[in-house]
Design brief:
With about 220 residues, the chain is α/β, with parallel strands linked by helices. The protein has helices spanning about 45-55, 75-85, 105-115, 120-130, 145-155, 175-190, 205-210, and strands at about 5-15, 20-30, 35-40, 60-65, 70, 90, 165, 195-200, 210-215, 220. It is built from 7 helices and 10 strands. The structure holds adenosine-5'-diphosphate and magnesium ion. Adenosine-5'-diphosphate binds near residues 41 and 45.
Length: about 220
Protein backbone atom coordinates (compact mmCIF):
# COMPACT_ATOMS: atom_id res chain seq x y z
CA UNK A 1 0.00 0.00 0.00
CA UNK A 2 1.23 3.50 -0.82
CA UNK A 3 2.22 5.34 2.39
CA UNK A 4 0.12 8.34 3.40
CA UNK A 5 3.25 10.51 3.51
CA UNK A 6 6.43 10.11 1.53
CA UNK A 7 9.22 12.64 1.28
CA UNK A 8 12.24 12.30 -0.96
CA UNK A 9 15.43 14.21 -0.20
CA UNK A 10 13.48 17.15 1.15
CA UNK A 11 15.54 20.31 1.56
CA UNK A 12 14.57 23.72 2.80
CA UNK A 13 16.77 26.79 2.86
CA UNK A 14 15.46 30.01 4.34
CA UNK A 15 17.09 33.10 2.98
CA UNK A 16 17.43 35.97 5.45
CA UNK A 17 18.88 38.98 3.68
CA UNK A 18 21.99 37.53 2.08
CA UNK A 19 22.34 34.62 4.46
CA UNK A 20 21.11 31.13 3.69
CA UNK A 21 19.77 29.21 6.67
CA UNK A 22 19.47 25.51 5.88
CA UNK A 23 16.54 24.14 7.88
CA UNK A 24 16.17 20.73 6.18
CA UNK A 25 19.16 19.00 4.61
CA UNK A 26 17.59 16.00 2.92
CA UNK A 27 14.74 14.32 4.74
CA UNK A 28 13.43 10.96 3.58
CA UNK A 29 10.36 9.99 5.52
CA UNK A 30 7.64 7.41 5.11
CA UNK A 31 4.51 7.37 7.23
CA UNK A 32 1.87 4.70 6.84
CA UNK A 33 -1.82 5.37 7.09
CA UNK A 34 -3.04 4.98 10.67
CA UNK A 35 0.39 5.53 12.22
CA UNK A 36 0.99 7.74 15.25
CA UNK A 37 4.45 9.20 14.77
CA UNK A 38 6.39 11.39 17.20
CA UNK A 39 9.11 13.73 15.94
CA UNK A 40 11.71 14.77 18.50
CA UNK A 41 14.97 16.72 18.42
CA UNK A 42 16.57 19.90 19.73
CA UNK A 43 15.16 23.34 19.09
CA UNK A 44 16.04 24.62 15.62
CA UNK A 45 16.62 21.18 14.06
CA UNK A 46 13.84 21.65 11.50
CA UNK A 47 10.84 19.91 13.06
CA UNK A 48 8.34 22.71 12.46
CA UNK A 49 9.69 23.34 8.98
CA UNK A 50 9.11 19.68 8.13
CA UNK A 51 5.56 19.83 9.52
CA UNK A 52 4.76 23.01 7.58
CA UNK A 53 5.97 21.45 4.34
CA UNK A 54 3.99 18.27 4.95
CA UNK A 55 0.92 20.42 5.55
CA UNK A 56 1.46 22.44 2.38
CA UNK A 57 1.90 25.68 4.36
CA UNK A 58 5.27 26.28 2.77
CA UNK A 59 7.14 24.66 -0.09
CA UNK A 60 10.49 22.85 0.01
CA UNK A 61 13.55 24.31 -1.73
CA UNK A 62 14.06 20.94 -3.40
CA UNK A 63 12.92 17.39 -3.07
CA UNK A 64 9.49 15.87 -3.24
CA UNK A 65 6.49 15.52 -0.94
CA UNK A 66 3.70 13.10 -1.63
CA UNK A 67 0.69 13.22 0.65
CA UNK A 68 -1.93 10.57 0.02
CA UNK A 69 -0.36 10.08 -3.39
CA UNK A 70 -0.54 13.79 -4.31
CA UNK A 71 2.53 15.78 -5.27
CA UNK A 72 2.19 19.33 -3.91
CA UNK A 73 4.50 20.67 -6.61
CA UNK A 74 2.10 19.57 -9.30
CA UNK A 75 -0.82 21.46 -7.74
CA UNK A 76 -1.94 25.04 -8.23
CA UNK A 77 -2.12 27.22 -5.11
CA UNK A 78 -5.91 26.91 -5.12
CA UNK A 79 -5.76 23.12 -5.38
CA UNK A 80 -3.19 22.94 -2.61
CA UNK A 81 -5.37 25.07 -0.34
CA UNK A 82 -8.39 22.89 -1.05
CA UNK A 83 -6.33 19.77 -0.47
CA UNK A 84 -5.09 21.14 2.86
CA UNK A 85 -8.59 21.97 4.05
CA UNK A 86 -9.91 18.55 3.22
CA UNK A 87 -7.05 16.29 4.10
CA UNK A 88 -4.99 17.92 6.84
CA UNK A 89 -5.75 19.06 10.36
CA UNK A 90 -3.35 21.27 12.32
CA UNK A 91 -2.85 21.67 16.05
CA UNK A 92 -0.34 24.13 17.45
CA UNK A 93 1.26 24.83 20.80
CA UNK A 94 -0.77 28.03 21.04
CA UNK A 95 -4.31 26.94 20.62
CA UNK A 96 -5.19 29.69 18.09
CA UNK A 97 -8.91 29.66 18.84
CA UNK A 98 -10.91 32.68 17.76
CA UNK A 99 -11.49 34.55 21.04
CA UNK A 100 -14.93 35.97 20.21
CA UNK A 101 -16.44 32.62 19.24
CA UNK A 102 -17.72 29.89 21.54
CA UNK A 103 -16.06 26.48 21.47
CA UNK A 104 -18.97 25.22 19.36
CA UNK A 105 -18.60 28.01 16.81
CA UNK A 106 -14.82 27.62 16.65
CA UNK A 107 -15.33 23.98 15.69
CA UNK A 108 -18.33 24.61 13.44
CA UNK A 109 -16.45 27.32 11.55
CA UNK A 110 -13.91 24.72 10.44
CA UNK A 111 -16.75 22.60 9.08
CA UNK A 112 -18.29 25.48 7.19
CA UNK A 113 -14.94 26.61 5.74
CA UNK A 114 -14.42 23.14 4.40
CA UNK A 115 -17.79 23.46 2.73
CA UNK A 116 -19.31 20.11 3.62
CA UNK A 117 -21.80 21.73 5.95
CA UNK A 118 -22.62 20.87 9.52
CA UNK A 119 -22.52 17.19 10.39
CA UNK A 120 -24.20 16.90 13.80
CA UNK A 121 -23.31 13.25 14.31
CA UNK A 122 -19.61 13.79 13.74
CA UNK A 123 -19.74 16.91 15.89
CA UNK A 124 -21.27 15.03 18.81
CA UNK A 125 -18.88 12.11 18.44
CA UNK A 126 -15.82 14.35 18.46
CA UNK A 127 -17.02 16.58 21.34
CA UNK A 128 -17.81 13.49 23.39
CA UNK A 129 -14.49 11.83 22.67
CA UNK A 130 -12.56 14.96 23.59
CA UNK A 131 -14.58 15.53 26.75
CA UNK A 132 -15.78 19.01 25.80
CA UNK A 133 -19.48 18.32 25.28
CA UNK A 134 -20.31 20.32 28.44
CA UNK A 135 -18.13 23.26 27.43
CA UNK A 136 -19.37 24.03 23.95
CA UNK A 137 -21.04 27.32 24.91
CA UNK A 138 -17.89 28.70 26.53
CA UNK A 139 -15.59 31.20 24.89
CA UNK A 140 -11.86 30.42 25.01
CA UNK A 141 -11.16 32.77 27.98
CA UNK A 142 -13.59 30.71 30.05
CA UNK A 143 -11.77 27.45 29.29
CA UNK A 144 -8.60 26.03 30.84
CA UNK A 145 -5.54 25.54 28.63
CA UNK A 146 -6.24 21.83 28.43
CA UNK A 147 -9.84 22.47 27.39
CA UNK A 148 -8.77 25.01 24.79
CA UNK A 149 -6.36 22.50 23.30
CA UNK A 150 -9.11 19.85 23.21
CA UNK A 151 -11.35 22.31 21.35
CA UNK A 152 -8.47 23.01 18.96
CA UNK A 153 -8.07 19.27 18.37
CA UNK A 154 -11.81 18.93 17.79
CA UNK A 155 -11.59 21.74 15.25
CA UNK A 156 -8.66 20.03 13.55
CA UNK A 157 -10.34 16.64 13.18
CA UNK A 158 -13.99 17.61 12.70
CA UNK A 159 -13.72 17.26 8.92
CA UNK A 160 -12.06 13.84 9.21
CA UNK A 161 -8.69 14.82 7.79
CA UNK A 162 -6.41 12.10 6.47
CA UNK A 163 -3.57 13.45 8.61
CA UNK A 164 -3.41 15.34 11.89
CA UNK A 165 -0.25 17.44 12.23
CA UNK A 166 0.50 18.60 15.76
CA UNK A 167 3.36 20.96 16.65
CA UNK A 168 4.14 20.60 20.36
CA UNK A 169 0.47 20.22 21.31
CA UNK A 170 1.31 19.83 25.01
CA UNK A 171 3.96 22.57 25.06
CA UNK A 172 1.74 25.01 26.96
CA UNK A 173 0.05 22.53 29.27
CA UNK A 174 0.71 21.28 32.79
CA UNK A 175 1.35 17.59 33.41
CA UNK A 176 -2.23 16.64 34.09
CA UNK A 177 -3.63 18.40 31.03
CA UNK A 178 -0.78 17.08 28.88
CA UNK A 179 -1.63 13.53 29.86
CA UNK A 180 -5.30 14.09 29.09
CA UNK A 181 -4.56 15.58 25.67
CA UNK A 182 -2.13 12.76 24.89
CA UNK A 183 -4.57 10.06 25.86
CA UNK A 184 -7.19 11.69 23.64
CA UNK A 185 -4.79 11.80 20.72
CA UNK A 186 -4.13 8.14 21.27
CA UNK A 187 -7.85 7.39 21.34
CA UNK A 188 -8.31 9.33 18.11
CA UNK A 189 -5.54 7.26 16.58
CA UNK A 190 -6.83 3.93 17.87
CA UNK A 191 -10.58 4.42 17.48
CA UNK A 192 -10.69 6.42 14.25
CA UNK A 193 -7.40 5.17 12.83
CA UNK A 194 -6.39 8.83 12.65
CA UNK A 195 -2.90 9.25 11.22
CA UNK A 196 -1.01 11.61 13.55
CA UNK A 197 2.37 13.26 13.23
CA UNK A 198 3.29 15.02 16.45
CA UNK A 199 6.30 17.15 17.26
CA UNK A 200 7.18 17.07 20.91
CA UNK A 201 9.81 17.79 23.53
CA UNK A 202 7.97 15.71 26.07
CA UNK A 203 9.25 12.12 26.51
CA UNK A 204 5.82 11.08 27.81
CA UNK A 205 4.30 12.39 24.61
CA UNK A 206 6.72 10.42 22.49
CA UNK A 207 5.86 7.32 24.54
CA UNK A 208 2.20 7.35 23.41
CA UNK A 209 3.23 7.24 19.75
CA UNK A 210 3.82 4.04 17.78
CA UNK A 211 7.15 5.24 16.49
CA UNK A 212 9.58 8.10 17.17
CA UNK A 213 11.93 9.74 14.73
CA UNK A 214 14.75 11.93 15.97
CA UNK A 215 16.00 14.93 14.01
CA UNK A 216 19.23 16.88 14.24
CA UNK A 217 20.55 19.70 12.06
CA UNK A 218 17.86 19.27 9.42
CA UNK A 219 18.18 15.52 9.12
CA UNK A 220 16.47 12.46 10.50
CA UNK A 221 19.18 10.79 12.56
CA UNK A 222 17.28 7.83 13.90
CA UNK A 223 13.96 6.19 13.25
N1 LIG B 1 10.40 31.59 8.52
C1 LIG B 1 11.72 31.41 8.75
N2 LIG B 1 12.63 32.27 8.22
C2 LIG B 1 13.92 32.08 8.43
N3 LIG B 1 14.46 31.07 9.14
C3 LIG B 1 13.61 30.18 9.68
C4 LIG B 1 12.20 30.31 9.53
N4 LIG B 1 11.60 29.29 10.18
C5 LIG B 1 12.61 28.58 10.73
N5 LIG B 1 13.81 29.11 10.43
C6 LIG B 1 15.12 28.55 10.83
O1 LIG B 1 15.20 27.22 10.35
C7 LIG B 1 15.76 26.37 11.32
C8 LIG B 1 14.76 25.29 11.72
O2 LIG B 1 13.68 25.89 12.41
P1 LIG B 1 12.38 25.08 12.88
O3 LIG B 1 11.89 24.25 11.77
O4 LIG B 1 11.45 26.07 13.48
O5 LIG B 1 13.00 24.14 14.02
P2 LIG B 1 12.30 23.43 15.27
O6 LIG B 1 10.83 23.40 15.06
O7 LIG B 1 12.92 22.06 15.30
O8 LIG B 1 12.68 24.22 16.48
C9 LIG B 1 16.20 27.27 12.46
O9 LIG B 1 17.54 27.63 12.24
C10 LIG B 1 15.29 28.45 12.33
O10 LIG B 1 15.89 29.61 12.85
MG1 LIG C 1 9.28 24.16 16.20
Amino acid sequence: MEPIIRTEDLKKIYRIGKVDVPALRGVNLIVDEGEFLAVVGPSGCGKSTLLHILGGLTGPSSGRVLVDGNDFRAMSDADRTRFRRHKIGFVFQRFNLLPTLTARDNIALAQSIQGNGFNPRRFEQVAEMLGIAQKLNHRPYALSGGEQQRVAIARAVICEPKILLADEPTGNLDTENSQMVLSMLRTLNRSFRQTILMITHNPEAAAVADRTIRMRDGRVVSA
